[in-house]
Amino acid sequence: MRPSFLITAWLLWYVAHASRMVIAPVLPIIEEELGISHAQAGQIFTYLTLGYCGALLTVPFWSRVPGYRRTLKIALAGLTLTLFLMRWATGLGTISVLSFCIGLATGTILPSAIPLITTAYGKEKWTQNLSIFNSAAPAGQFFAPMLAIVVLSMAPWRYLFWAMATISAIVMLMFQRSAPIEDPPADRPQGSIAAVIRDPNMITLGILWTLASAAGTGLGFLTPVYLVEERGMDLSVANPIFAAGRGANVIGALYAGYLTERFTCRSLLGWIMALTGVTQLGIALWPENIGVSVWVFLEPFINMMFFPVGFILMARITAEGVRGAAVGLVIGVGTALGFGVTPWVLGAIADVSSFQVGIAGLGVITVFSSLAVLRLEPL
User: Fold this and answer.
1) CA 181 from chain center: how many Å?
2) How far is the C-alpha of 207 from the C-alpha of 333, rounded, in Å?
3) CA-to-CA distance for 336 and 303, rounded, in angstroms?
4) DSSP character at residue 305
5) What CATH number is given to the structural domain containing 237?
6) How many domains are there within the chain?
């Protein structure tokens, strides 16, 4: 398999995460322009996540008809169109519906790309290639606020989505040229999902994935609002701090691949969850903004290590015929509760109390969740 496909697969996951994160840097502006509460702002991400999880859970059922390659082409075309239409969204309802469509398109990418990568490259290269692939997620999360800084310096916030649509269109054309000629065997959905549900490793991994998602993108969606509303930072200061933390994710994702060659995935996941919870407590409780900025930088760096380790563990304990279903089900459930529910819950808590209370509570839960790794196989 040509290296160009791994590059294109990386770009697919990159544009998926950038597209999902691009609303966060302009959320304070959207709240002010539309006159909505924190909980209503969190609703935007709930709709986005519903679409994302809907795709993750259903792709194994219908992707066998068009094949993984054509499924990805459909997803990229839909993503480009939706981002283009977001320019004209004028109310909370329209933004929520289009966010759902963004989630639907980006959620189709992962369960289609993972089988292509694991089939295209030998098992001995899975650790390296999956770590490289997953580094696209933090890179995309870093790029979104940086793109927002550039666009907002020149144009209204709505033009940010046109810029993102252009990037999505370019990646779509690149995939058209470098996609593998043959698809891997499609999953048999009913048997695949039943096998995943019966596996205690997958159940435990799904619980951990939920909390890791809540700690990462779930909290990240509202980080700029927290820094502006409760920490008193200017948006021009909060967005670079937020972007720096997302940029650190890239290093964390790549470093995780290095660590999996020296330690078991089980022990790594335990330490990652415990340390992630500690950093969340720092974000919520540290008294001075300089210290909070450091914790905002460290939290995504540590948290992002969870996902490549989780991908590698999932690839090791699942057979080829159920891998797509495992990815869709575990990540779908984890994302629904982690990405989708967390912003709404934190926003609702902030409306009646403060973001600090919600973030501190999440930190405590995340620390204690590290004990769940004892139920995983020591792989």
Assistant:
1) 28
2) 9
3) 18
4) T
5) 1.20.1250.20
6) 1
For the stretch 160-195, pLDDT in tens is: 999 999 999 999 998 888 766 655 555 555 555 666
Return the amino acid letter for 163. A
The rounded distance, in Å, linking the Cα atoms of 206 and 269 is 13
Domain holding 80, by residue range, is: 3-375
| Residue 167 token pair | 């990037």
pTM check: above 0.90: no
Question: Which residue blocks in the chain are alpha helix, DSSP H?
Answer: 3-21, 27-34, 38-62, 68-85, 92-107, 109-120, 126-134, 136-152, 159-178, 189-198, 200-213, 219-220, 223-229, 235-260, 265-285, 289-303, 306-317, 323-335, 342-352, 355-369
Percent of the chain with pLDDT over 90: 24
3 state SS for 238-303: HHHHHHHHHHHHHHHHHHHHHHHCCCCHHHHHHHHHHHHHHHHHHHHHCCCHHHHHHHHHHHHHHH
Q: Which of 285, 306, 148 is nearest to 218 (CA)?
A: 306
Scan for tokens 């993102």, then name that residue: 164
Token pair 């390296």 in the structure block, residue = 128
